[in-house]
Model the fold of this input.
Amino acid sequence: MHDSAILEKIKLNNKTAMITGASRGLGRRFSSVLSNMGANVVLAARNKDKLLETQEIIKQSNGECYIVDMDVNSEDSINNAFNKAEKKYGEVSILINNAGIAISKSSLKTSIEDWDSVMNTNLRGVFACSKVFANRLVAKQKAGKIVNISSIAAEIVLGEYLSSYCASKAAVSHLTRTLAFEYAKYNIQVNAIAPGYILTDLNKNFFDTKEGKKMIETIPQKRLGKPEELDGALLLLCSELGSFMTGSVIRVDGGHVIA
Ligand SMILES: NC(=O)c1ccc[n+]([C@@H]2O[C@H](COP(=O)([O-])OP(=O)(O)OC[C@H]3O[C@@H](n4cnc5c(N)ncnc54)[C@H](OP(=O)(O)O)[C@@H]3O)[C@@H](O)[C@H]2O)c1
Done:
């Protein structure tokens, strides 16, 4: 096969991708990358000002994007966001379930409200967005791709104070497999990326501490990842290069889990 045929497979022209949590951090990066590969990107989150910043970045590289207000804790909000996206671009065929939060507390001090808040955003939100997305594609007999953003916290215990976060991500990785199994017959692929530590707002306070700096020393590559180091895994799972993949969880962690 000629090189250009391989490059063609990675392009996302005429596709529409919805990215949850597109207002900052990894979601902002994912939105830019998918836009650069030719997709129309739908930027979903709650913070309008931050979404406008993401939109500006995409517009500067001549990308096509559209902002929708979405709270992944509300099925109505998710449905409204998909309605608006479809009105603007037609069907959404790629969903990046990226929105997520962490509450770092001893489990002895974690309130049931804290627990629910992490589980509802990180797990129920992934389920609810996937369900809305898949139902729409199934009704039209169209194919699609879901990429869930899990974490190495699904596999290893990341410190003492992240019980709700680790449990939520373990469930996201397994939900990826269960939905992949169920949706294969509809031609909807479901995979996940499990990043190790990538510096963003989610964890920057921790990495400013002595304990955080010590943690970096335990990573075989002895550094934090950069958001752009997830580009390869993202494009593999969103493009035709990954056409025979479903139910996979790709770890991108500088060797953290194997150490
Ligand atoms: N950074 C890492 O090292 C790392 C490692 C492994 C996995 N991850 C995962 O990667 C994802 C992104 O993390 P990040 O580091 O980019 O975090 P971040 O900078 O804190 O961004 C989190 C994003 O999630 C959105 N969000 C939170 N609650 C939401 C809700 N109820 N509805 C809609 N959007 C919501 C936020 O948008 P609004 O506040 O505007 O709604 C924001 O855009 C998360 O799932 C995280 O668990 C991150």
Notes: Residues 20-21, 23-27, 45-47, 50, 70-73, 98-101, 121, 149, 151, 195, 197-198, 200-203 surround NAP (CB under 6 Å). The chain has a mean pLDDT of 97.
